[in-house]
Amino acid sequence: MINSKQNQQFLVEDLIREKLRSGQIDKVLEIYEKSYRVCLFNDLIEVDARDALKRNIIILMVATSRGLLDEEKTCNSLRITCSLYLEKLNKVEKFINIYELGKEYLIEIDKILRKNNYSCKNFVVRKVMTYIKENLQEDLSLDLLSKQVHLSKNYLSTLFVEATGEKITSYINNQRLKKSKELLKEGDYSLAYVSDLCGFKNQSYFSMVFKERERISPSIYRKLNKR
């Protein structure tokens, strides 16, 4: 079971990743300082403070590098950098050195992302588009999609519109219609089956949306385009 301390660290990791994706290194370091310099958890003031801090920064390093993997060139650089800093971290003992190494790591990650023209917008949008296409049958709410990329719903909506020129809901409907047309052309599936497979609420709603967009009913479309 995830306790409150673990949940707090997850939130910090998500926020740091979000700011790194957006190129806001100042915000990243601000969050890091508030969360780790004073100590993220209360048990850091105990005897095992050093080991607890080191453990949490190791988790942050790994979670950050994995959460930012995208294109191959960027992936390799992130993995190598993470491995190098994990080795360095294992060799330091002083509290302040552990803290400073974590800070240095985040600065280095920011440099890698900038050098490789890493785009938060492109990364997030591609990931969301792929998830939508592979899970059309699901209830693709904005809440669900935002959790897939660890961003707030408002921020994800803004990125998506900036990158594609359309809202996420519009993109989802377009993809569902696209898949429904493929199914109608390829086989004799019932409209109820097509509706369910493409994620529409029910057959009636599917027919209504289809007719609004295509100006003809699904049944007529199938007759005119059957392969």
TrEMBL record:
Gene Ontology terms, MF aspect: DNA-binding transcription factor activity; sequence-specific DNA binding
UniProt xrefs under SMART domains: HTH_ARAC (SM00342)
Gene3D superfamilies reported for this sequence: Homeodomain-like
Start and end residues of each HTH araC/xylS-type domain: 126-224
UniProt keyword terms in alphabetical order: DNA-binding, Transcription, Transcription regulation
PANTHER family xrefs: ARAC-FAMILY TRANSCRIPTIONAL REGULATOR, HTH-TYPE TRANSCRIPTIONAL ACTIVATOR RHAS
Official protein name in the record: AraC-type DNA-binding protein
